[in-house]
Amino acid sequence: MLRRVQCLLRLHSNGRQALASRLRCYSTDEGNPKQNQNSNPNPRAQKPGTKNLPAVRNPFAAAQDRTKDTYLTMVDIFQERDVHRRNHVEFIYAALKNMADFGVERDLEVYKALINVMPKGKFIPTNLFQAEFMHYPKQQQCIIDLLEQMEDFGVMPDHEMEAMLLNVFGRQGHPLRKYWRMMYWMPKFKNLSPWPLPDPVPDDTLEMAKLALERMCTVDLRSKITVFETSELKDAIDQTWIVSGMSPEQEKLLREHSRQKALYIEGPFHIWLRNRRINYFTLRADPDPQFLSQLDERQLDEDDVSHIEVPFFGRAPPRRHNQVGKLRSVHQQDDGTILAICATGTSTKDSLLSWIRLLEANGNRSIGEVPVLFRFTSEVPAKAQEIEGGASVPATSDNRSSSQYEQQSSKRE
């Protein structure tokens, strides 16, 4: 009997102590509003029933010296600040977002430094269910997004990155599978283009214009790229360079062009070389319906591979219907004839007028007897707007008459 009474008293005393401790906690948290306000300076941001999460500050947005060394220094500071590396996912996303500001979006070393931020060994799945159901999905998706950004910028990983992903997520991790797919496809497409570009591409706009016109002029292997300076002309207004592309076939078409039909300078059109945009113009003539109607409809298309006849097993070789008769040049299209293309340093009407005069002075005398009109498909900068990279600056067109060249050509005559 005495033993039962002692047990009841002990339980009663424990219950009183627990109740007193709960009351003390309640009084310190909610009974003293001043102390609660000091602990949380923003009571609206804290909802009832939620935990006090530490605020994540973006150190990249407040950096003044935005270089690669500064970027890597901030990554090293984050690694040495905390052993557990809390908020590492948020830090990696903030680092990916601010890569372009530091100019390291195409640097493989920086991406490997961000992968090294992840803790090692903790996210490795230990069984089949964890591997297939994406063990630690937030962390795995973060590194997958990092690899996606690498793929978008054309950064090909190396074997060291494979070892880093293997130490973080294991062989069954989804980021390692993404890495294997990238290593299969990216080397196939890296050197697949028939117009290879230097890596990185040059910053000089003149060199970029040469590369752009060389790429477009590969349609005719006899095309010649010529660089003119407007300073060669006496009364040129714009002092700039002009890159012109023209083939002997186009010179022949220009000589045979009717003097009563006008030529048109059209543009600017755009061609992209990686992240650089180049403006170019074309010298075009209207299509010749009489010539197009005389073409034999039975001519074989050299680029058509749908009906290939192989002259094997006793079969006669296919008869070529376009061996005799008039042939269409590659420059003669259904919508017009392309006679020349060019890119100028200012993309103005004055520079294009100088281009026509330079063509006339360099072996194309017939162009001075033909009226040349400007036909712009979009607005052109008025003055001193150089060919820039990825910048999309709204252009403005000047108000000079499109028949300016006609007036000057009539004065020369």
UniProtKB/TrEMBL annotation:
The keyword Cell membrane does not apply. Residues 247-377 form the ECSIT C-terminal domain. Keywords: Cytoplasm, Immunity, Innate immunity, Mitochondrion, Nucleus, Transit peptide. Residues 27-56, 387-413 are annotated as: Disordered. InterPro entries: ECIST_C, ECSIT, ECSIT_N. Residues 33-43 have a biased composition (Low complexity). Its main location: cytoplasm. It holds the Pfam family ECSIT_C. One of its GO terms (biological process) is cell surface receptor protein serine/threonine kinase signaling pathway. Residues 394-413 have a biased composition (Polar residues). It is found in: Cytoplasm; Mitochondrion; Nucleus. Belongs to the ECSIT family. This is Evolutionarily conserved signaling intermediate in Toll pathway, mitochondrial.
